[in-house]
Amino acid sequence: MAVKKNTVRGEEPESNLPLWFNEVAGIALIGVGIILTLSLITFTPHDLPILSIGGVIDNEPNIPRENSIGVVGALLSFFVLRVFGAAGYLLPIGMLWLGIAYAFMGAKFSKRTVIGLFCFVLTGACLLNVTEVLTEWAARNYIFEPGGFAGLWLGTNVLEALLNKTGAIILLVMLYMIGMIMLTGLHPIQFSKVCWANFKQWRVKRANDRERLAEKKGKRSAREAERSARQLERDNAKAETKEKAQEENERAKEVKAKKAALAKLNRAEEDKKNPQVEMELKEIPKPQIIDSSQRRNNKREPGAKPFERKKNPDAISLSTDGFENYETPGFDLLAFDESEPEDEGMDQGELLSIQKTIVDTLKAFGVEVTAGDITRGPTITRYEVYPSSGLRVSRITQLEADLARATKAERINILAPIPGKDTVGIEIANDNKVAVPLRELLQDEAFTSAKNKIPLALGKDVYGNTVIGDLAAMPHLLVAGATGAGKSVCINSIIASILFKFSPDELRFIMVDPKVVEMQIYGRLPHLVVPVVTDPNKVVAALRWVVNEMEKRYRLFAKCGVRNFDGFNDRPRPEKEEPVVVEPEVVDETAEEEPDPEAIESIARALEDGELGPIGGGDDDELDMEEEEAEMPDRFPYIVVIIDELADLMQTAPADVEQNIARIAQKARAAGIHLIIATQTPRADVVTGIIKANIPSRIAFQVSSALDSRVILDTKGADKLVGKGDMLYLPPGSAKLERAQGAFVSDEEVEAIVEHCAAQSEQVFEPSIQESIEKGGSGGGDENDVSDADEECLLKCIEVITTEQKASTSLLQRRLRLGYTRAARMMDILEERQMIGPADGAKARDVHI
Ligand SMILES: Nc1ncnc2c1ncn2[C@@H]1O[C@H](COP(=O)(O)OP(=O)(O)OP(=O)(O)O)[C@@H](O)[C@H]1O
């Protein structure tokens, strides 16, 4: 750096020496410097034998020499040290410094540096000698003077002698400094200043650092203090909240305890006021297992009958003659197995285990229930459960599928709740089903009770109670269910129940069986008004006869001034030996005596509406009526119309069948006429709204879908039945469905009953109905038989034919919604009146109007 500076400033003439010289000089100086350094460091006076020879050193000289540069090193170092003393060590240092500057730092050789080097070493030697330091070292190394000869001569002998010691030291220090500056190029004052400034800076920095440190420490401690203060606050707050919570808890406990005490008090007061308090779950009565599936076998005397016939030799009915000595059937005709009722082994353990499964399954779904009674019926077993308070019973219904899976039941039905009870019933089909024989039901007091006018033995419910219906109260019954579910057996039990009570002069049947085979068995029954009707085309005529019969009865009721069938049969009669022949005048008088305004009004309204058949038609009709009124019967029998398979009829003539059924159903009750309609096709187009609206009592057997069940019962449930007589009964005037096992009567038993009845009397059919049926069935008829209703219909037909200028049965059927039979009859009448031409194969008929 110094060299460069000098060059720039041009304080000294620029050296003309070539560059390589500088480098050679530099390397030479470094090399000599290193040799000199090593020589001086490893200098020992014993390496110089000359000193020993001279007697300076008393010891033996070192052989070989210890100096690392050998003899030369020893001599050289001795020489340097004798000339410059300890300052000789400065010489290799200066040489190395210059060598490095020349060789590596691009400095150029200058005299100043060489002078500076000598000055630096020489003044150093003088100073050492004047100041007299390192004298011991000098003596030890046989140098004699710390500053060598140079120090002695120049320092002590010249300068100290001239300037005294102090003056010499000051001068020498000054020269030493100058020499160092010249050698190194460093500026000591500037350097000192810089050093001082740096020192001051360092001190300030240190002070600042200390302050900052102190500040940091202060801040940290402040923060810590703050933190600990906050922690303290938090701890205090926590402690406070805890205390508050504890206090609140205690307060809440107190309030709760007070409330409980109050509620207890209220309950106690309530209990006092009303002793029938709501039953707590823990007070649930002990569950029982009831087996109602077993048969009751009241053994009867041979020849015993459910009903003894009241003999009335004077009785006149629809077909009077030949029924005076009629005997109703006895129990003997029904099978009676004395070995029954044997316990078929109701396994209580099994029932209890199923009940446990039910309760556990419900519990698994979070539905808490308590087990109740188990009732084993003939077909199903009902497991009752008490839902815990606050539990919606619908939650149990929702688990139907899960319960079925858990109990491995074929079919399961849930009654939530059981009508009239506070329990929910889970009904599962029994593995061993027990049939309910008809005989068991007929022997029951409920069947023979006088309360029921036309008792029907229907079945037995799950609790073992007999299900007895009263046809007179129903007054019509719809029986529906899938094929094979037990419909025919049910109809057979109903007919058998009736046959056990009624003789043919008390009750007559009209049986309609489009399936032909179902009612074949009743063909010989003396109760039949007409042979079993199997041709669907003749059914409408049969139904029309029933309507006419109903109308006739109403007219006679009106004449007698009675309101209904019972009123007519129980009316007081004049004491006469001859069969009663009522003169029209006499009848009128009676009617006037006890007029029944309601009955008369209803009949009058029906006649006006044209709902009731022919009155005041032609002269013949009037004649008929007069005849009919002149011969007033002593009593009317009930008429029960049984239609087995409505679907077949609805296919043939839906409008006519529906209309006539509706008419009978609406009005026939008071006339002692009842309908029993069966179908295995519970579809909305078969069991129409009109039919359903007029037949409130229904029995549903198993059906395939909930939709079918709705058609029959207006609710689901029949789809959950298990078949083979398992049924749901909707009694008249009730919305509560009863599940029961239908009564079973075998074909053999039915045959025996029919045989018994047939043996009692001959069949006497009603000629008028037969005639009417034959006409209706054949489609023929003469003009004289055309009723008012027919005339009305004819007018409509004429209108259609004139508009269309076409005449065909199918056209009338389509346009006027007529059944085939009626439309064909209209065509015949029109042909007879020559309004249309005769039929000619496939050709259209001529229209003459
Ligand atoms: N009440 C009952 N008790 C025991 N078994 C019955 C009962 N009802 C019906 N069954 C059994 O079911 C079978 C079929 O009954 P049923 O003939 O009455 O059915 P259905 O509905 O009339 O069938 P379909 O319409 O085909 O005539 C019977 O043979 C009988 O074995």
Automatic annotation (TrEMBL):
It is found in: Cell membrane. It is a multi-pass membrane protein. GO terms for cellular component: plasma membrane. Keywords: ATP-binding, Cell cycle, Cell division, Cell membrane, Chromosome partition, DNA-binding, Membrane, Nucleotide-binding, Transmembrane, Transmembrane helix. Residues 464-710 form the FtsK domain. The keyword Endoplasmic reticulum does not apply. InterPro entries: AAA+_ATPase, FtsK/SpoIIIE/SftA, FtsK_4TM, FtsK_alpha, FtsK_dom, Ftsk_gamma, P-loop_NTPase, WH-like_DNA-bd_sf. Residues 211-257, 266-285, 299-313 have a biased composition (Basic and acidic residues). Residues 211-324, 571-598 are annotated as: Disordered. Gene3D superfamilies: 3.30.980.40, P-loop containing nucleotide triphosphate hydrolases (3.40.50.300), Winged helix-like DNA-binding domain superfamily/Winged helix DNA-binding domain (1.10.10.10). PROSITE patterns: FTSK. SMART domains: AAA, Ftsk_gamma. The chain crosses the membrane at residues 20-43, 69-102, 114-131, 143-162, 169-189. ATP binds at residues 481-488. Residues 585-598 have a biased composition (Acidic residues). Pfam families: FtsK_4TM, FtsK_alpha, FtsK_gamma, FtsK_SpoIIIE. One of its GO terms (biological process) is chromosome segregation. The keyword Cell cycle applies. It comes from the Bacteria. GO terms for molecular function: ATP binding; DNA binding. Belongs to the FtsK/SpoIIIE/SftA family. Homohexamer. Forms a ring that surrounds DNA. This is DNA translocase FtsK. It comes from Rubritalea profundi. The lineage of its organism: Bacteria, Pseudomonadati, Verrucomicrobiota, Verrucomicrobiia, Verrucomicrobiales.
